[in-house]
Amino acid sequence: MAVLDILTYPDERLRQASDRVQRFDVALQARIDDLEETRKAGPGAVGIAAPQVGWFERVIIVDVSGRKKTRSHGHLILVNPEITEWDGFAMGREGCLSVPDYTGNVIRATRIRLTASDPDGAPLELDMEGYEARAAQHEIDHLDGKLFVDYLSSLKRQRIRKKLEKDQRRRA
Ligand code: ZN
Questions:
Q1: 3-28: per-residue pLDDT in tens?
Q2: What are the backbone angles phi and psi of residue 115, rounded to the nearest 5°?
Q3: Are 21 and 80 in contact (CB under 8 A)?
C-alpha cells in the first residue's frame, strides 16, 4: 500500500470527468487500498475520490463515523456511485484534500438516495442524510470534475486560487 500524491486546485486534471469502473478485480482492490491509505494520511479527511490521486475512474471513499452525533453507514467504498434522489437543502462548511487550508460554505441536499457497487461488484442502495449525504455529494462532484470552490463567489475562488498557486510555486 502507498500514500499517493494529491492533486491540488487549480490543477486542471481535477476538472476531468472520470470513467465508470468496468472490471472488479485485484487491480481495482489494490488501487482502492492506496486510495484509502492516502485518505487516512490526510488531515481528518472524511472522504476522498479517485481523481484526487490522478486515477480517473468512478470510485469514492466516505467515512463520517468519526464525527460525533452523525448518523452514518460507517466506512463506505463506493464504485460507480450515482445519486438517484435528492431532498431538502442546507448550507454547511466543507473542506477538501485538494484545496488545502481552506473551507467554504456550500448548499447541498440534506437527504439523498444513491446506488453504487461495492468493491466486489455487488449492488448497493443507500439512503443518506446530513453530513454523510454532504460528504457523498462532495466526493461524487470530484468524479465529474467539480470542486467545492465552484460554489463559492468568484472573488473568494480567485483569492484561494492565487494563494494556492503561490504555495505551489514556493514548493516547486
Ligand atoms: Zn474534495
A1: 999 999 999 999 999 999 999 999 99
A2: -110, 150
A3: yes
Q: How many CB atoms lie within 10 A of CB 161?
A: 15
3-state secondary structure of 90: strand
Which cell numbers hold the place of 93? 462548511
Q: How far apart are CA 142 and CA 17, in angstroms?
A: 8
Distance 48 CA to ligand 1 centre (A): 6
Distance CA 117, CA 143 (A): 15
CA distance 124 to 114: 8
pTM of the model: 0.96
Residue 67 CA, ligand 1 centroid: distance in Å: 17
Task: Please write the tens of the pLDDT for every residue from 67-126.
Answer: 888 899 999 999 999 999 999 999 999 999 999 999 999 999 999 999 999 999 999 999
What is the CA(8)–ligand 1 centre distance, in A?
Answer: 10
Give me the active site residues, please: 139
